[in-house]
Amino acid sequence: MSQNVGVHVVACRGPGDLSGVQALIDAGDIDPCHIVAVMGKTEGNGCVNDHTRDFAATAWCHFLAPYLDCTADAVHARVALVMSGGTEGVLSPHFTVFTRETVDSAPTHGEKRLVVGIAHTRDFAPEEMGRMAQVEATADAVRDAMRDAGIADAADVHFAQVKCPLLTSAKVDDALRRGAEPVTRDTYESMGYSRGASALGVGLALGEIAPERLSDAAVLHDATLHSARASVSAGIELEGNVVIVLGEANGSASAFRIGHTLMRDAVDAVGVRTLLRTYFGLDPERDAGAIASRLVNLLAKAEASPDGRVRGARHTMLNDSDINSTRHARAAVGGVLASVVGRTALYVSGGAEHQGPPGGGPVAAIVRMPSS
User: Fold this and answer.
1) What is the rounded distance in angstroms from the CA atom of residue 317 to the CA atom of residue 303?
2) Which residues contact 66 (CB under 8 A, 6 or more apart)?
3) Which of 95, 240, 329, 343 could form a disulfide with 302 if both were Cys (CB 3.0 to 4.6 A apart)?
């Protein structure tokens, strides 16, 4: 018995447009009962009031419910839905759909291939967000997702995508009424705390961060702590964390592989080219046709460097009162990555607290392998 993971990138006209997915189902390319996870990029602002994420997730729940023979609310427990707002610059709204099925035939390729696992944490009280309760619950969920994927060695995890909640004014008021103090009373700042705590949880689960170095005080304050494989997006549409672990395992019958690297800063195109060349044998400068036919997606984190500089030159992203720095960062990194691979439907998520080094971030590539 082998796990066979499929991946499809589907364009959309808006956060609720699933006509492209329906077309793939009608053509027999996707069995909706095998959909296990969806990572979407929607065209909202990616901030606290970005309801395109909730819109997209709700659309998916109502779309899948008849196929899965369950209620729309029950879909959340069966399919990991991660919607990331913000398609600034050249980024194109899209969904990356992961399917998983068990097949009888053993793979003949003789190498590790793509596997996927999902898990959920419990819901968090407002005062738990951005603190060790969220760190530890996320670590447990990552371990659960690894088991679900059939990954025994953390080194085989290449990308851990987390969707986490944020604080709203109502949640802050609720905590204060109960005599509990949230990590911050600023709703936008809470997104960073929630992302940061979740990323530290990924690092803890994958053995990248020693448990004795973690504390409430470390979240957003100890820049030496980060995960090279964590990607976290915050949203208003959920109360607990959703985790998708992407990695490789022997025995997978998937036609795809996944590899990862770290962009050391927002303009590190060389790092991405090196990943494609050394891990997949694809040279972006010479193999444009192969890139176009085999690259499924790049999954990346983007961050405005917190020290205010990129390679020694001052940037102004942190000082813009009109457009938040996460929006600038998505546009910048999206443009860099698009220039490398020649496509714009890329999963670039803003806000990289404890996700890669300050100013940089993890990048993973999913690539279809040639048939033997």
Assistant:
1) 10
2) none
3) 329
pLDDT in tens, the chain (372 residues): 788 999 999 999 999 999 999 999 999 999 999 999 999 999 999 999 999 999 999 999 999 999 999 999 999 999 999 999 999 999 999 999 999 999 887 676 879 999 999 999 999 999 999 999 999 999 999 999 999 999 999 999 999 999 999 999 999 999 999 999 999 999 999 999 999 999 999 999 999 999 999 999 999 999 999 999 999 999 999 999 999 999 999 999 999 999 999 999 999 999 999 999 999 999 988 888 999 999 999 999 999 999 999 999 999 999 998 999 999 999 999 999 999 999 999 999 999 999 999 999 999 999 999 886
Q: Which of 50, 5, 55, 52 is nearest to 30 (CA)?
A: 5
CA 110, chain centre distance (Å): 28
Has this prediction a pTM greater than 0.90?
yes
- C-alpha angle 200-197-322 in degrees, rounded to nearest 5: 120
Catalytic residues: 163, 233
Residue closest to 10 by CA, chosen among 60, 76, 51, 72: 60
* 118: β partners: 244
Q: How far apart are CA 12 and CA 60, in angstroms?
A: 12
Nearest to 240 by CA among 118, 103, 110: 118
The structure tokens listed for 250 are 């022997």
Those residues with Cβ within 8 angstroms of residue 283's Cβ, 6 or more apart along the chain or in another chain: 273, 276, 277
- Give every strand in the sheet of 295-302, ordered side by side: 256-263, 361-368, 295-302, 347-350
On the CB side of 166, CA atoms within 13 Å amount to 23
Burial class of 305 by CB neighbour count within 10 A (0 to 12, 13 to 18, 19+)? buried
